[in-house]
Amino acid sequence: MSEPIIDTHLHLWHPEAGHYQWLAGAPDMLNRPYELDDSAEDRAGLGITGAVLVQADDDDADTEAMLAVAEASPEVMGVVGYVPLHEPDVAVARLAELHSRPALVGIRNLIHDRPDPDWVLRPDVTEGLALVERAGLPFDLVTNRARHLDHIPTLGERFGDLTLVIDHLGKPPIGESVGQERWREQMRIAASNPKVVAKLSGLYGPDSTPVGTDELRGWIATALELFGPDRLMVGSDWPVSELAGGYRTVTAQVLDLVAELAGSQAPAILSGTARRTYGL
Q1: Is the bond leading into 15 cis (omega within 30 degrees of zero)?
Q2: pTM of the model
């Protein structure tokens, strides 16, 4: 592809640092350090010239590590970091610290790892979200169950100036026999809010299994129908994508389908939405 491409969902981690507790139950393939250079050849091979690093741990150290990489790496255009939404007094101080770090372009918490599926609507958490809204930062919403998508209309009503970024297209039930109509309706409602955008990333079958191109075409076509190209962006979800075939295989599949389905509007999905959403 000749158009500029920004990978809006790239992770880095170092398990030996003592963080990333979720990796304890992850496949061995993921349970090792992943550096920016480890994906450099694949990114270059696909024509990807920029990347947004996304938090992989609810910990300041993870955010600081990403910011350090961003400051040393011109190809890193931004960092979606962490502040403890459930501790608004801490979050406000942390946001003030991060204000001087121009690489910070968004906030995320690992909502999908919380036992409470309604965690994001807790009063302390919504107080934290109000701080993110006030700071003018978008919020990446990561989900792993339909219940999480139910909260998007409520969040939209409460925080009219907060841009919500649905990671991994809200984890549609790919390869599953139930839940498809519910996902489509939830995403239709989410898309009715112009402040909601979505990422074409992390689109796997159960247990991160690969998805056939024909099946994936249907999910991306639905996303394009609901959100339009100006509210969609691409992301590799690397290194999680290693489980589904690797960076180049998984990302190329998405890029090819974007080119096929969006045609002349593909540049918005490849880079335009990311630049506008994250202020890159």
Answers
A1: no
A2: 0.97
* 164 DSSP β-pair partners: 139, 196
Q: Which two tokens stand for residue 189?
A: 């409602």
Q: What is the DSSP letter of 238?
A: B
pLDDT > 70? residue 2:
no
| Distance (Å, whole) CA 32 – CA 185 | 38
DSSP-derived pairing of the beta strands 76-81 and 48-54: parallel
pLDDT at 24 over 90: no
pLDDT 10s digits, 60-82: 999 999 999 999 999 999 999 99
Rounded to an integer, the average pLDDT of 79-99 is 98
Residue carrying the six token digits 């809200």: 170
Contact residues for 5 (Cβ-Cβ < 8 A; gap 6+): 46, 47, 48, 49, 50, 234, 255, 270, 271
* 18 pLDDT above the threshold of 80: no
Question: Which pair of tokens denotes residue 126?
Answer: 């919504």
Which residues contact residue 80 at a Cβ distance below 8 angstroms, ignoring those fewer than 6 apart? 52, 53, 54, 55, 105, 106, 107, 108, 140, 278
Contacts of 170 (CB under 8 A, 6+ apart): 143, 148, 149, 183, 186, 187, 190, 198
